[in-house]
Write a structure and sequence with these properties.
Length: 102
């Protein structure tokens, strides 16, 4: 996966959550989200519903463009299809693959 420090993996404290780390200076958050959700869904990214149907990818990228410092507190959580996604300013993308509770 381009721009990721390591292959996405399940978090030890929640096996229903896929976690990937990215460097926002080399890959945009919108691309990182699509790549990680595609892995979680076991599909090609092209097979997923377009991200723009859920949120504005340009606004998302802009939100995180200046938040790559290690102490950045910026984060965003949203529903993308059947998945709950959380993105952090430090380059983490979490995709919850289990049942989503309101």
């Amino acid at each position: 996966m381009s721009g990721s420090d390591r292959r996405p993996d399940r978090t030890s404290d929640d096996p229903d959550t896929l976690h990937a780390e990215f460097d926002w200076s080399t890959v945009s958050p919108s691309v990182a989200i699509v790549q990680t959700v595609a892995i979680a869904a076991d599909q090609e990214a092209i097979e997923l519903s377009p991200l723009i149907e859920t949120l504005d990818p340009d606004a998302l990228d802009q939100l995180f463009s200046h938040s790559s410092e290690s102490d950045s507190a910026v984060s965003l959580s949203f529903q993308l299809g059947d998945y709950r996604v959380t993105v952090t300013g430090t380059g983490d993308v979490y995709v919850h693959t289990g049942p989503v509770h309101p």
